[in-house]
TrEMBL record:
It comes from Scleroderma citrinum Foug A. GO terms for cellular component: nucleus. This is BED-type domain-containing protein. One of its GO terms (molecular function) is zinc ion binding. Keywords: Metal-binding, Nucleus, Zinc, Zinc-finger. InterPro entries: ZnF_BED_domain_contain (IPR052035). The keyword Zinc applies. It is found in: Nucleus. The lineage of its organism: Eukaryota, Fungi, Dikarya, Basidiomycota, Agaricomycotina.
Length: 220
């Protein structure tokens, strides 16, 4: 803390509060960069004559944040202004090309190309899980058909083995695009719990009379 009172250079605003590390029995201050995604640290040995030098800090800030940020920091009145105003401004208004130019000496180039449909599908489904395997549409279709067939057989066996009453309900409605559907649901009590399973949903030409509904139920 005594040494920190002499650290008045605005460049300190780009680094987190230092920690003390020991290397071969020698104590050193370690300054970690506050840049987003930057893992660089500056180490200064306390027993050196240039223990208060900020030369390496200036070099890193110029490479990591850019010359404009360093120039703005040198014009700041104190460390708080660098941390609260300059750093936030460069985080908010920075350009992606500037980030690449900081890492290399070459001019940054890029291409603005829209993602394809398959790339959009994979990027959304694999967000946060880049190693996940995304099956093809045909694989998903095949698996859904297999699951449907197995589930239908299981429900059919459950209904045939059920020792009790089965109640059937039906409902008919017209979709917004003027298609008529009739749905069938079975209800029963098993081990004290009410069970309900949709059996089928049939598209019909029209629903005009109870006789037509009765005929559809008979076919079911």
């Amino acid at each position: 803390e005594r040494m920190m009172k002499d650290w008045s250079s605005p460049v300190y605003g780009f680094f987190e509060e230092p920690t003390v590390d020991r290397v071969d029995g020698r104590r050193a201050h370690v300054f970690k960069c506050s840049g987003h995604g930057c893992k660089a640290s500056i180490r200064r040995f306390i027993d050196m004559k240039d223990a208060g030098s900020t030369g390496n800090m200036h070099k890193h800030v110029r490479a990591c944040w850019g010359a404009d940020a360093l120039h703005a920091a040198n014009s700041a009145k104190d460390i708080d202004e660098v941390h609260n105003k300059i750093m936030r401004s460069f985080h908010r208004n920075g350009k992606i090309t500037t980030v690449f130019e900081h890492k290399t000496n070459r001019k940054a180039t890029y291409a603005n190309i829209l993602h394809t449909r398959s790339e959009i599908r994979c990027s959304l489904m694999k967000t946060g899980r880049p190693t996940y395997y995304i099956p093809s549409a045909m694989t998903v279709l095949r698996d859904v058909k297999v699951m449907f067939a197995q589930t239908r057989q299981r429900i059919a066996k459950m209904l045939m083995d059920h020792d009790g009453r089965l109640s059937f309900t039906t409902d008919a409605w017209t979709s917004p695009n003027h298609h008529v559907f009739v749905a069938f649901v079975v209800h029963f009590v098993q081990e004290g719990m009410l069970m309900s399973f949709p059996l089928d949903m049939v598209k019909v030409p029209k629903v005009s009379s109870p006789e037509l509904i009765q005929y559809i139920v008979y076919l079911m």
